[in-house]
Specification:
The chain crosses the membrane at residues 1126-1153, 1236-1265. By secondary structure, this protein is of the alpha+beta class. The strands form 13 sheets. It has a 5-stranded antiparallel sheet. Strand 14 (345-354) and strand 15 (359-369) form a beta hairpin.
């Protein structure tokens, strides 16, 4: 299209009254946010060209002239007035506009959606935008007029609206008038005669919102999905009254707004009214920061954020040694005077905390004015560049904040105590106060803490308490505590004796976030309280899904169509079906040139996010530009029947397809019903959880999100023995062959030692792992060493594993002789096919003697022995009957640390994987949701209680076809040992998802599970505790530790390869994470944890020794005398010793029963030493094997390991020394010491012959616990004698 203006239309200079303002408007900040996706890559020609397919016209500005190209027909004259607006820009700013090329979309819905572009998207300007779209928002065409609706340009229209505002009467009670997408009227001066106006967004963006906001009427603005260029900067409760889009609270919000307006009609004025709310708060979400300045001298910083607003201060937790920290912490400030909100400022300062001296160093700050605060529905995550403190300071990086205003009465202002000081600091200060001051009267420990904190606030000694706003308030705070205002305590009174001490500890330290929490959800079988299911008033259904909540779905089965009309000029039709409810829609695949297609696809729409009561099933024709509608079938959801299993599936019916004009367009076979996740069609159905954007678009790789059940292959050990060979012939006839045999199965190899001779003997044993079905053969290759690192093949033998013998016990298996084939192709042929008559009878053939068989009496370990989920042998003949059933209900997951982001907002595509025995299960992937609800139930047969169920939570990186091999990231996992579960009890708990990173321990979220273990026979289950843990072969012919670890790794690789061939595949990183493949690698943290475990095991011996020491030192004479009496009784009546010991253990067990664990054990962060590990130790643990670190780091770690090993070596040497001294008593290495010991033995033997043994024990016991006055401070004679005995340390080099 071409438009020509007069040659004098463009002015040559800018007029004086058109000069730029000193400050930019508020909405200019959104320009940087809209073009942020191209910040790093820039905009290339390829990006622009790819955007032509979804654009309506293109504009090129060259040397002050505008050239426009129409790509598609725009609705009415939107493109014309948009170009007209650009011409006005050139006219007002001649010579200021650079050469540009722009693409424009003129529809009412966003087109550049995030999930469609993994890389930078095409830059397309549009009149509206939304959170999950990349459309660049541009001023609406109607600002320059709308000819079709007779709407004047904005400046002229404002004059008419001002005249209408003057005629508005507020003396009567007003009522709301609806004006939004559903109303197609022309905005005139008569539209402003109502006190209230409501803006309701339809299924698309509406251009009418600015006309509603222009009136002096009180605008009730229902929270929209889309936004335009100017509306994002409007202040809620100043320019409009926000209304929630939640159907449950919308009417109450409108009612409260109207009641306030009727009570305050004088405060309603466009652009000036401020709605006075008593519970107005400013919410600040501190999300993350990146690229900060290192300040600790080691290339890192320990960072925290401090927030200042309206005299209140809060701070986040400190992230140690992290230049890109992630907090995800929320704070709420109290707005004391809403009328002053535009003049207030919010300061966010990032500090580095210096642990050595307790100081803090400013890394940068951000200041936000009150005019930029928006309502919660309009708030988005923004990244602000950090400002310098002064011209000489250094600052870089950005901080991500989400700032909003809310009046939700359920949200309470944040308690500043956790940001002030730690619990330990309070206790230390409390102790100092009690030392220096006089002792106060006895009070509870919690009250003491509360009083101390209140006193410290009065003294204003700490930085992060609320700061006084004026001198008057400071004077009031200097008064005695009795005169202080109750509000100064900021909720401290709530922390007094009404709450127990652990609650106070949890408020100051986050350790309690790592524990398992019991819940009481209402599941399909009823409400779970304390492990018992309480049946509700609803009748129990026949469904077996009683460990999950019943989730209602609307199922639509699209079977096929017939007699569809031809739509193209060529008479062809490429049909597909679109099923739509509200903004959620799913589509079938399309068929090329088929008027009777058959799809047989099921769609499942969750009832909880249903947006409409009308179901639309539309048949469309696929076209290159725009798909044509063939016809639609409508269903009223109130009339849809409900199906409950085990009812038979609902029979599909034929429905006539109609267009809007009533014309019949063929028939479509459909079945529509209501059901739950127990429906058999649920597993393979399309789910509305796959919808990424509100416009209904779905993911591109839908097969990757389905829920599936996988069966891992049955594994066998293949035992091979290479005995000997005969008549080997070398290529060099002048020398004897130096032969060796290489045995191979897949990527597993074993090689014998080379033996010289024509008939060598090796007797080499090898052990491999194979999986059913056996695909890889067993290959023997005889090689001759002809030179350095050079082998020549003498012959090959190939044995199919499926044809070798299987052994179930330790009986001997006979081997066989096999002829060696020169070529591998000949060896691959089946044994016995080659006939002897084809051979030269006078010629000798080389052959090899091998023994190969499948050893089915072992259990093949493919996971860590500590977390094994199956202990059965390979052969089925040795399997026992199951002893019970394990049921698992995966309810929901709460992700606290999003593993990725979309459109600047953290998100997750979450799915769960559970493993027990041979059965692996995978839930469906719920896309773009940090709080996914699965409610899927699975069942396993249990053969042994000494097994572990493992469940992992992952983020799916394969939902798009352009994933480019990205790995699924792990969020966390849990383990549950079956033996710790009570039979018949339903365990409903929320488990923390913990992970260890280089920066420390992190809680990524929580997973909510329901678990029940039911046994078939209590007697059989009790009998298992007296049977061997592993199959018999593990004890008759045990495997070495080295072979176990080597074969375990090979078995895991085989399982990962087989599960990766399924559809959808269970990826290798998932199998490795679930199988704990790296548990055998070195870790300083694990070493400390194991040492602490060992110390805890022998801690009772230390306590007994300490108790005996107190008895021997007579610290409590009464107890010591009592011990003397008991000792005499046991010596005189030795028959009472064992019964007393067992009775004592029984009493202790019954006492401990009162404190038995109520929750299943979970990963203990304290036991794992996750909180005390240094970043260097964690970095070493996270390193790959082999290492990828620099040589300096590896050398430093090696030296540290040598130092640690030296200490262990010294301890082992000390233990060996004590043992050698015992041997030296009779070895005559020290003849004098041995002589003394022999004399002592002779005298003792004579005394025992003539003296009762009870007397000897009494004298020995009384000597050990004699009174301190009878003791010497130096060691006794026996100890001195033992320490002088020689050891072998002096003979070591």
């Amino acid at each position: 299209m071409t438009y020509t203006c007069h040659k004098d239309y463009y002015p040559t200079k800018l007029e004086q009254d058109q000069a730029a303002a000193s400050t930019c408007p508020d909405y200019f900040k959104w320009i940087h946010e809209d073009i942020k996706p191209w910040k790093r890559t820039g905009i290339t020609r390829e990006m622009v060209e790819t955007g032509k397919n979804v654009s309506f016209f293109r504009v090129v500005i060259k040397q002050g002239k505008v050239y426009a190209e129409r790509c598609a027909n725009s609705y009415q004259t939107r493109d014309v007035f948009t170009v007209w607006g650009i011409l006005q820009l050139l006219r007002l700013y001649p010579g200021k506009i650079p050469d540009l090329e722009l693409l424009f979309e003129t529809g009412d819905r966003t087109v550049v959606h995030e999930q469609h572009f993994q890389g930078p998207p095409p830059p397309i300007f549009h009149y509206c935008g939304e959170k999950n779209a990349y459309d660049i928002v541009f001023p609406v065409w109607s600002f320059w007029g709308w000819v079709e609706l007779a709407i004047k340009p904005w400046e002229a229209l404002l004059q008419d609206i001002d005249e209408g505002n003057k005629k508005m009467k507020y003396g009567r009670i007003g009522y709301p008038m609806h004006f939004g997408k559903a109303t197609h009227g022309c905005p005139t001066k008569d539209q402003c005669v109502h006190r209230y106006k409501i803006y309701v967004e339809g299924i698309t963006w509406s251009v009418s919102e600015k006309y509603i906001l222009a009136c002096d009427s009180m605008t009730l603005f229902i929270e929209p999905i889309y936004y335009d260029f100017f509306r994002r900067s409007l202040k809620p409760r100043q320019k409009y009254w926000p209304i929630s889009r939640n159907n449950q609270t919308m009417c109450n919000d409108i009612k409260s707004a109207v009641e306030w307006g009727n009570a305050n009609p004088d405060k309603i004025s466009a652009g000036s009214y401020v709605l006075a709310m008593n519970n107005l708060k400013l919410g600040v979400e501190v999300v993350n920061a990146h690229d900060l300045v290192p300040k600790d001298g080691k290339g890192s910083s320990s960072t925290f954020v401090e927030l200042h607003f309206d005299g209140q201060r809060f701070r986040t937790t400190t992230k140690d040694k992290d230049l890109s920290p992630v907090w995800n912490e929320s704070f709420y400030f109290t707005v004391t005077d809403p009328s002053k909100l535009p003049s207030l400022t919010l300061d966010a300062c990032i500090f580095h905390y210096n642990k050595s001296n307790g100081s803090k160093i400013l890394l940068g700050k951000v200041r936000l004015t009150g005019t930029s605060f928006v309502y919660h529905s309009d708030a988005v995550l923004l990244h602000y560049p950090l400002e310098k403190k002064n011209i000489f300071s250094r600052s870089k990086g950005e901080i991500g904040l989400k700032v909003f205003v809310t009046d939700d009465p359920s949200i309470r202002a944040s308690n500043p105590l956790p940001a002030v000081e730690s619990f330990v600091d309070i206790v230390q200060d409390l102790t100092q106060d009690l030392t220096h001051d006089q002792i106060p009267p006895p009070v509870s420990f919690t009250d003491s803490i509360s009083n101390t904190v209140s006193r410290k606030k009065t003294e204003s000694r700490h930085t992060f308490h609320n700061i006084a706003k004026s001198n008057h308030e400071q004077k009031q705070q200097s008064k005695p505590a009795a005169d202080a205002k109750p509000s100064v305590t900021f909720g401290i009174q709530e922390m007094k004796s009404s709450q127990p001490l652990p609650k106070v500890v949890q408020a100051f330290a986050g350790a309690q976030d790592y524990v398992v929490k019991e819940t009481s959800p209402t599941l399909g079988g009823g409400k779970v309280v304390g492990g018992r299911v309480i049946r509700g008033s609803k009748p129990a259904t026949s469904s077996s899904y009683d460990l999950v909540e019943s989730m209602s779905y609307l199922f639509v089965r699209v079977v096929k169509a017939r007699d569809l009309p031809s739509m193209d000029i060529t008479g062809s039709l490429d049909p597909y079906v679109e099923v739509k409810i509200g903004n959620f829609k799913g589509t079938t695949n399309h068929f090329e040139k088929n008027q009777n297609p058959e799809w047989n696809k099921v769609f499942a729409f969750a009832e909880e996010n249903r947006q409409s009561f009308l179901l639309e099933v539309t048949v469309k024709d696929r076209d290159h530009i725009s798909d044509d509608v063939v016809g639609t079938v409508f269903f009223d959801l109130h009339e849809v029947p409900k199906r409950t299993p085990p009812d038979s599936p609902l029979a599909p019916q034929w429905y006539r397809i109609e267009k809007t004009n009533g014309e019949k367009k063929g028939e479509l076979m459909l079945a529509v019903w209501r059901g739950t996740q127990a429906d058999e069609a649920f597993q393979d159905a399309w789910h509305s959880d796959a919808v990424v954007n509100p416009d209904g678009s779905t993911i591109s790789n839908y097969s990757q999100i389905r829920s599936k059940v996988y069966m891992s292959p049955r594994l066998w050990y293949v035992r091979v023995k290479v005995v000997e060979a005969q008549d080997l012939v070398s290529s060099d006839k002048s020398k004897l062959p130096d032969a060796s045999v290489k045995v191979q199965i897949g990527n597993q190899t074993s090689k014998t030692k080379p033996m010289r001779g024509v008939n060598p003997q090796w007797n080499h044993d090898a052990l491999f792992v194979a999986a059913e079905p056996f695909e890889e053969p067993l290959v023997f290759t005889v090689e001759d060493r002809v030179g350095a690192n050079k082998d020549e093949t003498i012959g090959n033998v190939v044995l199919p594993i499926s044809k070798i013998e299987k052994r179930f016990d330790d009986k001997l298996v006979r081997g066989g002789w096999f002829l060696l084939e020169k070529s591998m192709s000949s060896a691959m042929e089946e044994q016995g096919k080659m006939k002897e008559k084809e051979k030269d009878k006078d010629k000798f053939f080389s052959r090899i003697h091998v023994i190969a068989f499948l050893d089915g009496g072992y259990h093949v370990l493919n996971e860590s022995t500590y977390y094994s989920s199956d202990l059965r042998p390979s052969t089925r003949q040795l399997w026992k009957k199951p002893i019970g059933v394990l049921e698992l209900g995966i309810l929901n997951v709460d992700v606290l640390l999003p593993p990725k982001s979309r459109d600047g907002r953290g998100t997750s595509d979450t799915y769960c994987v559970a493993k027990y025995g041979h059965k692996w299960v995978r839930t469906r992937t719920i896309v773009n949701n940090l709080n996914p609800k699965f409610h899927e139930q699975y069942t396993w047969e249990v053969y042994d209680t000494a097994t572990v169920l493992t469940l992992g939570v992952f983020d799916n990186a394969q939902i798009h076809n352009s994933s480019n091999g990205k790995k699924d990231s792990e969020i966390g996992k849990i383990r549950i040992r079956i033996s710790t579960l009570e039979t018949g009890r339903v365990y409903t708990h929320s488990y923390p998802l913990l992970s260890i990173h280089s920066s420390g321990l992190k809680k990524n979220g929580d997973v909510h599970l329901a678990i029940r273990f039911s046994c078939n026979s209590m007697l059989n289950m009790m009998g298992l505790y007296f049977k061997p843990h592993l199959p018999k072969m593990h004890y008759t012919k045990p495997l070495s530790i080295i072979d176990q670890e080597r074969l375990r790794l090979q078995a895991m690789l085989i399982v990962a390869a087989r599960l990766g061939r399924a559809e959808p595949p269970l990826r290798k990183e998932v199998v490795e994470y679930m199988s704990d493949t790296d548990s055998h690698l070195w870790s300083m943290r694990r070493s400390k944890a194991n040492f602490n475990r060992l110390r805890n095991v022998f801690y009772f011996l230390v306590r007994i020794g300490g108790w005996f020491g107190e008895i021997a030192k007579w610290k409590n004479p009464f107890v010591t005398v009592l011990v003397h009496i008991l000792y005499l009784m046991f010596v005189c009546f030795p028959d009472l010793i064992l019964p007393t010991i067992f009775l004592y253990m029984f009493v202790i067990g019954m006492w401990q029963w009162r404190f038995r664990p109520r929750y299943p054990p979970h990963m203990d962060a304290r036991l794992s030493c996750a909180g005390i590990a240094t970043p260097e130790e964690l970095d070493e643990e996270m390193d790959t094997f082999p290492t990828t670190k620099s040589s300096d780091i590896v050398r430093w770690r090696y030296d540290r390991l040598r130092s640690l090993a030296g200490r262990v070596q010294s301890v082992v040497g000390q233990i060996a020394t004590q043992g050698e001294r015992v041997h030296a008593l009779l070895s005559w290495r020290d003849p004098r010491a041995t002589s003394i010991f022999m004399v002592f033995c002779l005298v003792t033997a004579i005394m025992l012959y003539v003296t009762p043994p009870q007397m000897l024990f009494i004298l020995s016991g009384f000597y050990l616990i004699r009174h301190p006055k009878l003791r010497d401070k130096t060691p006794g004679a026996p100890i001195n004698f033992f320490r002088r005995l020689p050891a072998l340390t002096d003979t070591m080099m």
